[in-house]
Amino acid sequence: MRRIGVLTSGGDAPGMNACIRAVVRTALAHDHVVLGIRHGYAGLIAGDAVPLDRTAIRNTIHQGGTILETSRSLEFSTEEGRLRAAAAIERLELDGLVLIGGEGTFHGASLLAAEADTAALVGVPASIDNDVYGTDYCIGFDTAANCAVEAIDRIRDTARSHERLFFIEVMGRTAGFLALESGIAGGAEELVIPEEELSIARISERIREGFTIGKKSAIVVVTEGKTPGISFQIAREVSERLNFESRVVVLGHLQRGGPPTLRDRVLGSLFGVAAVEALLEGRSGCMVGEVGGDLLCTPLEKTWQKKKPLNEHLLWIFQFLSE
Ligand code: F6P
């Protein structure tokens, strides 16, 4: 191996820069050349690459976003686009490529692997949704979850002062990891997660029960699901049933930015080193991850084909801690 490429793709996630930095430092320590591919798969198709040396990654570990920039490339979802990407990999003379991203990135990488057989491909999980199979945590989740908890704390002050019901919508798409963990940490009364069927009656009943034991306000954490903004409809229906005023706060992209937490910087660093080591060991077509405290590699196909389940124990403790 002589030349290693690195790119970030899909939604940016705090900690991606720590990972890029770790990839560069590890590769340079083994005397390899590192190229940063800009704008994710769109940049790969265009062959948009810049050399990454020690100077390029200096003073970046504390920055959110990604210094390489990112994209969700429609062209890459076509065979023609992927063939152009494979040609660029050859032109750039890459022996290995580290792909930092989420499910969509690895779906694309699995397809690319069939066309780009000149370079080894190794993935690194980074997604605030934390929905990638093959790792307990993805880079970015911890920062986003802490952002959501801070928002819940702030809103609780108003909820308590005005005796109100609040619906706080968090990201996560079709996975409830952000809602579950921020809901536990923020002391929410109820959750709406895609893993469970939505029941306005159940949500209303749980809030009513809380009021009967003396609660005067309540917070419901809602996963955006496939329809961001869904919490407005849920709030209206629950409010009508309970005849109780409510407010909605959609956290949106606030959760994606900001300086990475300690956990995301360490995870990004660990995964960056592990990805280069995996390449040096001759691995390809896999994603590095951490399961039960162990670093391991999972075949790329599994990371997006298998649905990562929520932690059953956390779901269970939420039920009675939220009463
Ligand atoms: O996948 C990360 C994520 O932040 C999701 O939680 C959210 O649904 C989506 O990206 C938003 O994507 P975009 O920034 O492209 O609107």
From TrEMBL:
Reactions the enzyme catalyzes: beta-D-fructose 6-phosphate + ATP = beta-D-fructose 1,6-bisphosphate + ADP + H(+)
Enzyme class: transferase
Keyword Cell membrane: no
Boundaries of every Phosphofructokinase domain copy: 3-279
GO CC terms in record: cytoplasm
Pfam families: PFK (PF00365)
EC number: 2.7.1.11
Keyword Kinase: yes
SUPFAM superfamilies cross-referenced by the UniProt entry: Phosphofructokinase (SSF53784)
Cofactor(s) the record lists: Mg(2+)
Compartments where located: Cytoplasm
InterPro entries: ATP_PFK, ATP_PFK_prok-type, PFKA_ATP_prok, Phosphofructokinase_CS, Phosphofructokinase_dom, PKF_sf
PANTHER family in alphabetical order: ATP-DEPENDENT 6-PHOSPHOFRUCTOKINASE (PTHR13697:SF4), PHOSPHOFRUCTOKINASE (PTHR13697)
Name of this protein: 6-phosphofructokinase
Species this protein is from: Methanoculleus palmolei
Taxonomic classification: Archaea, Methanobacteriati, Methanobacteriota, Stenosarchaea group, Methanomicrobia
